[in-house]
């Protein structure tokens, strides 16, 4: 029994070795149980770790799944460029579906031109799942990010409407995972669910993984708005009564420009980021994701509607 032997050797493995072995096991379970999975790859740090884990799980062969990105059309260009370059270097198939495509089809209708497209990714993701017939989507969500994600299973079942019911989840006793589903249903698999933000950064350091430049401290024009630092871009301009200042900031998480805020930081190396992360008292999404601050249940509601 592969995983039983891992339990027996747990004390002999380092913390990162153990997390890596668990994640590789989960990826291989997905490949073995699912007929047509996809790996969600945005160019962010968590999905970059997933790519390295997939390499260790399946090389020298090709990945048994394509890479899939649901693009709002409002992502940071540094991240999109990194996404395309990384997929090309790996030689893996990258599928991109855009919220803008859903808007043209009329399946996404914004309340106003300035509304964030982030929550509407759910619609585009469900359309991509139907288009390609995916029965599992592998994501880089972690339980330490947000309380709705903290109660989600590693193999998270979604019904034929793509919805997540937190009261109807499968047991995962003794690290046994059930990724089977009926036609039309879907599994969301989270191999690094048990990792923390600090684990991710330590793994990046150990594996010498490349990252988009905005994860590191840099000068950027910003305003202080509603308790958060808002970057000044063509999508998020300063209001007439706001003072634009240049701050040294970095992004702890990356996503749609309209709802992703940086934090003030001088951490311009991975070593400094690890030291900073070890002492922070605010979760990365709590500090930087403006969409999660809309209400206490914002993330859980989006997940019930089909979000990642």
From TrEMBL:
Family: Belongs to the PAPS reductase family. CysD subfamily.
Segments of skewed composition (Basic and acidic residues): 299-308
NCBIfam families: CysD (TIGR02039), PRK05253.1 (NF003587), PRK12563.1 (NF009214)
Keyword RNA-binding appears in the UniProt entry: no
Descriptive protein name: Sulfate adenylyltransferase subunit 2
All copies of domain Phosphoadenosine phosphosulphate reductase, residue ranges: 37-262
GO molecular-function terms, A-Z: sulfate adenylyltransferase (ATP) activity
EC number(s) from the headed UniProt entry: 2.7.7.4
Residue ranges of the region described as Disordered: 289-308
Pfam families: PAPS_reduct
Keywords, ordered alphabetically: ATP-binding, Nucleotide-binding, Nucleotidyltransferase, Transferase
